[in-house]
Design brief:
Layout: H1 3-11, E1 14-30, E2 36-56, E3 61-63, H2 76-88, E4 93-99, H3 110-125, H4 132-142, H5 146-151, E5 155-159, E6 163-166, E7 173-178, H6 185-189, H7 203-207, H8 216-222, H9 224-233, E8 240-241, E9 248-252, H10 255-265, E10 270-277, H11 281-289
Parallel strand pairs: 3-4
Antiparallel strand pairs: 1-2, 2-4, 2-5, 2-10, 5-6, 7-9, 7-10, 8-9
Helix pairs in contact: 2-3, 8-9
Length: 290
């Protein structure tokens, strides 16, 4: 197949923008600019938004359909594509079609993942050949969670979450509950009750079971639906908070165990059943497309 035909085919592909889970989140300090210093562990799950990119002759970046409550200019996919154009002088245009599945304000990184997929895929479709290092820097300018989606593998994260090292984690089944609330990350990180002096740990400490989330107590105090979701999910396995929430999750060794919890909860809660994966579904798809 010619390179031109391959490129035409890639323009019609639906590209995944997967969710992430924070399997651990420790706040170990604070920078002078107010950003918190973290230790965290990211793992992807095969629960995704889906993006399709359509070439546009007018050189503009537009959405096929805006997301309710989000202005087009504020949408992270639009900001990411416009940043690519600004940084490279690219004259090409694109119309971005987003199939939104990941809940907003849930701690699953949906907007950040959408931005990362936009940067990674348009870098390929527009023949920009930017390095991973450059894409990571651009991603960080859009949000602290964007780099891990560009990195594309389960990661031990430090700094504000942008210093990433590969970590291999068991790929378990995951049940995720989205409580009926939208947690404001800024509110949690500005809380006077938030622990900001956790001790640094090392990867073996996490592997041996140290996976607390320093945001858990504050979020539970402020958001009753999160506290309730943690309680009901804990009847099936250890219930944990991802990021600042609102989503809570539990891991299971088998699909049968996870499905049992999912079926018991789905009539009252917004709940998802997914699989934890170490390689981002985006990069799995990119490899298959080459």
């Amino acid at each position: 197949m010619s390179q031109m035909l391959i490129k035409e085919r890639l323009w019609s592909v639906r590209w995944p923008a997967p969710a992430k889970l924070n399997l651990m989140l420790r706040i170990v300090g604070r920078r002078d600019d107010g950003y918190h210093l973290l230790q965290t562990v990211f793992q992807f799950v095969d629960f995704c938004d889906w993006l399709t990119f359509h070439p546009s002759d007018d050189g503009e970046v537009k959405l096929s359909k805006t997301i309710p409550g989000v202005a087009e200019s504020d949408d992270l996919t639009v900001r990411a594509a416009r940043l690519l154009k600004a940084e490279t002088g690219c004259k090409q245009g694109v119309r971005i079609e987003v199939e939104k599945n990941l809940p907003m304000g849930g701690g699953l990184g949906g907007g950040s993942s959408d931005a990362a997929t936009t940067l990674v895929v348009l870098n390929k479709l527009w023949d920009l050949d930017l390095t991973e290092e450059k894409l990571l820097a651009m991603g960080l300018s859009l949000g602290a969670d964007v780099p891990v989606f560009i990195y594309g593998y389960s990661s031990w994260g430090e700094g504000v979450g942008e210093k990433l090292s590969k970590i291999i984690i068991p790929e378990q089944w995951v049940v995720i509950i989205k409580p009926n609330c939208h947690v404001e990350t800024k509110e949690i990180f500005s809380s006077k009750n938030l622990t900001r002096n956790s001790k640094y740990i090392k990867m073996p400490d996490f592997i041996e079971g140290e996976h607390k989330n320093d945001c858990l107590s504050v979020v539970s105090q402020l958001y009753a639906p999160v506290k309730e979701a943690l309680h009901v999910l804990s009847e099936f396995a250890e219930a944990r908070l991802t990021g600042t929430g609102a989503c809570v999750f539990a891991q299971f060794d088998s699909y049968v165990e996870a499905e049992k919890a999912y079926n018991a909860l789905k009539h009252k809660w917004v709940v998802f059943l997914a699989k934890g994966v170490n390689e981002s579904p985006l990069f799995t798809k990119l490899k298959a497309s080459n």
